[in-house]
Design goal:
Length: 435
C-alpha cells in the first residue's frame, strides 16, 4: 500500500462521514473530490516506478555516515555524546570525503586528467582513501609516508594498487620531508608526461635525468610515475578542497542528523580540515554551538587556540630534526598552521594524553563494542572534557575517524604499549577524573 500521509482532521472527518472504502481512496489520492471508478482502474494499472535505493558507484557511498549515541559516555556524563561514524565510509575513514573532493576539484580544474597520478604525503588515512577512490576516476595513486607509521597502512596501500615510498621522518623544512617528496613526485610525473608527449621514443632512464634530480632510491613507484598522464599533488594540508569536504558534507550532515539540537562539537586536528570545515559550518548556521579542539601531545595547536602562539621555542618546527609528534595517536597533532586549520572557528581547546586515548579506546570497546582508532579515542576524550566543562544536559558531537583495524601494531599492541608505559589499567573513566 502507498504510504499514508494525511492530516488527523481529514481522517476524523472522513471516518464520520464516509465509508471505509472511500476513505482509503481519499488517503491515497490526497484529493477531496470523488474520482470515477474508471480513473481508479487507470491509476491501479499505472505501475509506480520504484525509486532505487542503490548508490551510484563507490564514491556515492561516501558520506552520510550514521551519527550514533555513545551510550557509555552519555550515561557517565549526563550529556548526549554522539559520534559520527566515519569509519563506516568505504575506504574506512573520514578521509574518503576529502579524497573525493580533492580529486573531483582537480579533475574539474584540469589540474588532473584521467590516467594521471595523484601523489600525497600522508601518514596513512588520506593516502588509503586516495588509493581507494582514484580508480573510480580512472586515476592512479603514489604515496610517500614516514617509515615509522604502522606497517599495516603501507600494506593496505600496496594491496589497493598504489605505489608507496617509505621515507625517514624529517622536519617539514627539510627537502626530503615526506610531504615535500610527494609534491616533487607530482612535478616529476608532469615533466615525464609532457616529455613523453614531445618525444615518445625517450626511455625512462633519460627522463629521470631530465627531471633534475634522481628519483628516491626506494621509490618503487617510478614505473607508475613514468607511465601516467601527468601528476597532481593532493596537498591535503593546504588544499582547501579538504576544508570544503567537511564544510559542505560533514557539517551539514551533523546539523541535519541532530535536528540542529546540539550544543558543542569537538575534534582533534591533523590537517585541520575536519575541525575547520565542521566548526565553521556549524557556527555560521547556529552561532551558539561551541566548537573545541582536543590536542594530543607534541602538537602546538592547543597553545595557538588558547594563547594565540603557535611557535613556542621548543615547538618551532624548523628547530626539530626528527618527527615532532611524540605520541601514539596517529594522524593528529601538528606544529604549523595549515591553510585548512586557519579557517576553524574555535571557542577553546583541551589537551589529551596518550594514556587517556588508550584507556578511552579500551573503555569504549568494553562498554559499547566500539573498536576505534587512536584519533577517534582522543576525540572521545575531548567529548568527555567538553561535557565536564559545560555540564550535564548538553548534546556534544565528535568524529569517529577510523576503526581500530588500522592500529593493530601500535595502539592495540600490548607489547608496544608496555614498552612505552601505556598499558591500560582503568576499570571505568577514572583516568578522566570520573567515578
Ligand atoms: C585517522 C585520522 N584521524 C584524524 C585525522 C585528522 O583529521 P584532519 O586532517 O581533518 O584534521 C587524520 C588526518 O590525517 C587521520 O588520519
Amino acid at each position: 500500500m502507498a504510504p499514508v500521509r494525511t492530516t488527523g482532521a481529514i481522517a476524523v472527518a472522513a471516518a464520520i462521514s464516509i465509508s471505509m472504502a472511500l476513505l482509503s481512496h481519499f488517503i491515497v489520492s490526497g484529493k477531496t473530490n470523488l474520482p470515477l471508478p474508471k480513473q481508479l482502474k487507470k491509476k491501479k494499472k499505472k505501475k509506480k516506478k520504484k525509486r532505487s535505493n542503490s548508490r551510484n558507484g563507490l564514491t556515492d557511498a561516501i558520506g552520510n555516515t550514521p551519527l550514533i549515541r555513545i551510550n557509555s559516555l552519555s550515561e557517565a556524563t549526563g550529556c548526549e555524546i554522539l559520534g559520527k561514524c566515519e569509519f563506516l565510509n568505504p575506504g574506512g575513514s573520514v578521509k574518503d570525503r576529502v579524497a573525493v573532493k580533492i580529486i573531483e576539484e582537480a579533475l574539474e580544474s584540469g589540474d588532473l586528467v584521467e590516467g594521471g597520478v595523484v601523489t600525497e604525503g600522508s601518514a596513512g588515512s588520506t593516502a588509503i582513501s586516495l588509493a581507494t577512490v582514484a580508480p573510480a576516476y580512472g586515476c592512479k595513486c603514489h604515496v610517500v609516508i614516514p617509515d615509522d607509521v604502522a606497517i599495516e597502512k603501507s600494506q593496505i596501500l600496496e594491496a589497493l594498487g598504489a605505489s608507496v615510498e617509505r621515507v625517514r621522518p624529517v622536519s617539514i623544512t627539510h627537502r626530503d620531508h615526506y610531504v615535500n617528496i610527494a609534491r616533487r613526485r607530482a612535478v616529476e610525473a608532469n615533466e615525464v608526461a609532457s616529455n613523453n608527449q614531445k618525444a615518445d621514443q625517450m626511455d625512462g632512464q633519460s627522463l629521470k635525468q631530465i627531471n633534475g634530480y634522481p628519483m628516491g632510491e626506494n621509490c618503487e613507484g617510478s614505473s607508475l610515475l613514468n607511465n601516467c598522464r601527468g601528476g597532481f599533488f593532493a596537498d591535503q594540508f593546504e588544499n582547501l578542497a579538504n576544508f570544503r569536504a567537511h564544510y559542505e558534507g560533514t557539517g551539514p550532515e551533523i546539523l541535519e542528523q541532530t535536528g540542529s539540537n546540539l550544543d558543542a562539537f569537538v575534534a582533534a586536528a591533523g590537517t585541520g580540515g575536519t575541525v575547520a570545515g565542521v566548526s565553521r559550518f556549524l557556527q555560521e548556521n547556529k552561532p551558539n554551538i561551541k566548537c573545541f579542539l582536543i590536542d594530543p601531545p607534541g602538537s602546538g595547536l592547543f597553545n595557538k587556540v588558547t594563547r594565540g602562539v603557535m611557535y613556542t621555542s621548543e615547538e618551532a618546527e624548523g628547530r626539530r630534526l626528527k618527527n615532532p609528534f611524540d605520541t601514539v595517536t596517529e594522524g593528529i597533532g601538528i606544529n604549523r598552521l595549515t591553510q585548512n586549520f586557519m579557517l576553524a572557528k574555535l571557542d577553546g581547546a583541551f589537551r589529551g594524553t596518550d594514556i587517556e586515548a588508550v584507556e578511552m579506546s579500551r573503555f569504549l570497546l568494553k562498554n559499547d563494542g566500539l573498536f576505534l582508532g587512536s584519533s577517534s579515542a582522543m576525540n572521545c576524550v575531548g567529548a568527555v572534557r567538553v561535557a565536564q566543562s559545560i555540564g550535564p544536559g548538553h548534546t556534544i558531537v565528535t568524529i569517529l575517524c577510523d576503526s581500530g583495524m588500522r592500529h593493530l601494531s601500535k595502539f592495540y599492541n600490548d607489547e608496544y604499549l608496555s614498552q612505552h608505559g601505556l598499558t591500560p589499567k582503568a576499570t571505568g573513566l577514572e583516568f578522566l577524573g570520573m567515578q
